[in-house]
């Protein structure tokens, strides 16, 4: 528990610094975009704003996920971080649509752009984004919420590279169409990251089996326990990105009925060690009971087992 608290504090500290630095870059790029008349830079500032919101929401989600369960929310607020990730992804899609709309107008009639000004601002933005991405990288692999914020920052770093290239092209060739073209490139990056985040968060919200858990192997592990003759009514889902839960009915042979406690303990140990499932509800049944299918459909009005 102490290790987890320390880890959360470390993540929150890094997220706080990331919010401060990305917020500063947002204002710099927004002002720079208007001064240089660069849609690419304005698009990048919009993306940075989403970074700020993503990082702030991630920070908020970590805080509320530490709150204790209540009588009305028995799992606490752990799933709030998944909702935050979904909102982040959806807002990114909206931003990309706006970028595509503005870019179309500039492709038809490209305005003048100050290439050197764009280069200076975009270079500063790239440096800050790389620094923030480095801070978050170690935690992004184990935390969906931080992962969504990490993708925001990485996407913006790539976008900053595109803006720098556009600035150089404009300065040396005068080809103004590159500015809206880079904006479309930025929008495409945003869409790719948003779709990935929405898919992952939606999978959890819809009670999908965790992607790292093999349901067939779970059944095999439980069935291999001495005395277990069948597994049915199996459900596996995620409470949040790294907390998995399971409920199941397990048939125990009559000859092993006296070992019920031992069998349950072994089942929980296997689920924890082999599949990282620590929250389980296993109902023991005798072999004479109707076993049904491994995956049992839920009936909205069910009166009989």
Keywords:
single chain; 305 residues; mainly alpha; 3-stranded mixed β-sheet; 8 helices
What's the Cα radius of gyration? 25 Å
Any low-confidence stretches, pLDDT <50, length ≥5?
A: none
The overall pLDDT average reads 82
Output the helix-strand order: HHHHHHHEEHE
* DSSP summary: helix tally: 8
Strand residue percentage:
5-15%
Spatial gap, N to C terminus: 38 Å
Q: Can you describe this structure in just a few lines?
A:
The protein has 305 residues and is mainly α. The chain has helices spanning 2-36, 39-65, 80-108, 115-140, 144-173, 178-205, 215-223, 260-275; strands spanning 228-240, 243-252, 277-286.
Task: Note the topology.
Blueprint: H1 2-36, H2 39-65, H3 80-108, H4 115-140, H5 144-173, H6 178-205, H7 215-223, E1 228-240, E2 243-252, H8 260-275, E3 277-286
Parallel strand pairs: 2-3
Antiparallel strand pairs: 1-2
Helix pairs in contact: 1-2, 1-4, 2-3, 2-5, 2-6, 3-5, 3-6, 4-5, 5-6
Describe the protein in words.
- The protein is mostly helical and 305 residues long.
- The chain has eight helices and three strands, in the order H-H-H-H-H-H-H-E-E-H-E.
- The protein has a three-stranded mixed sheet.
- Strand 2, helix 8 and strand 3 form a beta-alpha-beta unit.
- Helix 1 packs antiparallel against helix 4.
- The longest helix has 35 residues.
- It is elongated.
- It starts with a helix and ends in a 19-residue tail after the last strand.
- The mean pLDDT is 82.
């Amino acid at each position: 528990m102490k290790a987890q608290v320390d880890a959360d504090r470390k993540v929150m500290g890094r997220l706080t610094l990331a919010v401060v630095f990305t917020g500063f870059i947002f204002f710099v790029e927004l002002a720079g975009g208007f001064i240089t008349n660069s849609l690419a830079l304005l698009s990048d500032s919009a993306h940075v704003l989403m970074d700020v919101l993503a990082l702030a929401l991630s920070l908020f989600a970590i805080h509320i996920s530490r709150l204790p369960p209540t009588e009305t929310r028995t799992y606490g607020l752990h799933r709030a971080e998944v909702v935050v990730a979904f909102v982040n992804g959806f807002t990114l899609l909206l931003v990309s649509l706006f970028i595509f709309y503005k870019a179309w107008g500039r492709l038809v009639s490209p305005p003048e752009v100050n290439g050197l000004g764009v280069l200076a601002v975009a270079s500063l933005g790239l440096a800050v984004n790389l620094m923030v991405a480095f801070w978050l990288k170690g935690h992004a692999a184990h935390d969906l919420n931080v992962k969504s914020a990490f993708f925001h920052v990485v996407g913006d770093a790539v976008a900053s590279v595109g803006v720098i290239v556009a600035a150089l092209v404009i300065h040396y060739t005068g080809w103004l169409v590159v500015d809206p073209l880079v904006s479309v490139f930025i929008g495409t990056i945003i869409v790719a990251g948003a779709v990935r985040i929405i898919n992952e968060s939606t999978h959890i919200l819809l009670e999908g089996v965790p992607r790292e858990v093999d349901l067939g192997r779970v059944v095999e592990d439980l069935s291999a326990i001495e005395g277990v003759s069948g597994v049915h009514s199996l459900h596996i889902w995620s409470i949040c990105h790294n907390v998995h839960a399971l409920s199941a009915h397990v048939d125990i042979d009559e000859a092993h009925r006296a070992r019920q406690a031992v069998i349950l303990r072994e089942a929980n140990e296997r689920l924890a060690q082999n599949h990282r499932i620590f929250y389980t509800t296993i109902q023991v049944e005798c072999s004479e009971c109707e076993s049904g299918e491994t995956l049992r459909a839920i009936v909205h009005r069910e009166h009989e087992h």
